[in-house]
Amino acid sequence: MQAHNGMYIDGRWRPAAGTETIEVVDPATEEIIGTVPAGTAEDVDAAVAAAREALPGWAATPPAERAARLGALHDALAARREEIAATVTAELGAPLSFSQAVHADLPTTVAGTYAKLAAEHPFEERLGNSRVLHEPVGVVGAITPWNYPLHQIVAKVAPALAAGCTVVLKPAEDTPLVARLFTEAVAEAGVPAGAFNLVTGRGPVAGQALAEHGGVDMVSFTGSTAVGRRIGAIAGGAVRRVALELGGKSANVILPGADLVKAVKIGVGNVMANAGQTCSAWTRMLVHTDHYDQAVGIAAAAAAKYVPGDPTDPATRLGPVVNAGQRERVTGYIRTGTEEGATLVAGGADAPEGMERGYYVRPTVFAGVTPEMTIAREEIFGPVLSILRYEDADDAARIANDSEYGLSGAVWAADDETATAFARRLHTGQVDINGGRFNPLAPFGGYKRSGVGRELGPHGLTEYLQTKSLQF
Fold it and tell me: Catalytic: 165?
């Protein structure tokens, strides 16, 4: 049981303004494993004031020194790998092996990329008779989600610090403990007082106070499209910079000639990872009518191998979803899919056998899904796959693009050239070609209602810079 009572403001832990706390629950056992303070507008005020006070000094710090602090942050995170993984498994429910490889290692890698980018980025350039300066936006309010709690923190805080911005972080209330570990790493890395500040709290209170604060120059938010629209409206009214990484309903298009077994198995694994709580998951699998029945059989067999279990067991591949509300949301979508006529070929809304405690959902696959069905249109955010049929390439492109979202996707074909030609037709921010590996330097973000702006790599750094030109 970890009981915390402080906010990290101006380089030190200080008591919260209020007395209310947030209980952190282990989704596998439903037991309370920690508490953190529920921040108020007063806490946000103090954090923003500290960030504004620190801004001139940090912005004027040479890029090489900012890079050194980020390099030290990378090392501090790497040293905490096992503690980070265990913490994420405890508060999110992700299987320990996944927590180690993704929740711990990926953000550590991203921190290292920004150490390098901070040292190499051209913060000044010449264009004709002009000198163009790339300067920090200012104070950044970073509001992060629970599904990839440390990765999303690093994907915002590291580029903001690299750019010379100062930051106030409000992490998700379900997963605040790993945010505190990150804060310890920031302090160990020697980031100056006030350049980074942490306020834990609930979205409607601390999050809204941060989004509305007049001392914040930019808000970077990752989460639901509904909340992102509200934050975007607030930012628009204040004429303030905003970056939004929101929902997704990504298509996994398997073209004739592709390795069907490989494409289907990897597609199922993509949806089951992190208990399906991934905004970029390929939750719509599109298969040519000639191969449809075979693909359904492969998918059902693959899903059966994702047996829900104790996330601390190294053999577990599928842990619980984050909380009771999320479980009800996901199982409600499964029931809706059945009611609307989709065919359940794996899983279902009933609790997994022998899992009396914990927020577990069975790995679920639907066949016979049509584009107008709810499960083909709305983001479920759980281990649920919909398999749709298409007639030809034009039909596949039409179905894939028939979505209000456009975050990610995949294309499988007999060769990369064919897959790439089809990928160019997709209205989405990122596409994996024939199982292409995740690249932490590639821009990540969406089209349409999947968001505004990009994270990761040099494109993620430029989100936190504004441009000034000097004419000579």
Answer: no
Known catalytic membership, residue 245: yes
Helices (DSSP H) in 38-176: which residue ranges? 41-60, 63-79, 81-92, 96-98, 105-120, 149-163
Q: Mind listing the pLDDT tens digit for each residue in 399-435?
A: 999 999 999 999 999 999 999 999 999 999 999 999 9
Pairing of strands 364-369, 384-390: parallel
Q: Return the structure tokens found at 283.
A: 């939750």
Longest dimension (CA), the chain: 74
Phi, psi for residue 471 in degrees, rounded to 5: -100, 135
34-56 confidence digits (pLDDT tens): 999 999 999 999 999 999 999 99
Structural contact between residues 251 and 409, judged by C-beta atoms closer than 8 angstroms: yes
Query: Which own/partner contact pairs does 324-330 have at CB distance under 8 Å and 24+ positions apart?
Result: 324/359, 326/277, 326/359, 326/381, 326/382, 327/359, 327/360, 327/361, 329/380, 329/381, 329/382, 330/276, 330/361, 330/380, 330/381, 330/382, 330/383, 330/384
On whether the CB atoms of residues 224 and 249 are closer than 8 A, the answer is no
Q: H or E element: which one contains 23?
A: strand 21-26
Chain centroid to CA 313: how far? 24
Contact at 8 Å (CB) between 191 and 69?
yes
Catalytic residue among 165, 279, 379, 463: 279
Pairing, β 284-288 against β 343-346:
unpaired
How far is CA 423 from each of CA 93, 115, 253, 283, rounded to the nearest angstrom?
34, 32, 9, 17
The encoded tokens of residue 17 equal 């303004």
Closest CA to 187 of 12, 383, 393: 12
Catalytic residue among 173, 212, 245, 455: 245
> Beta-carbon neighbour count of residue 415 at 10 Å?
12
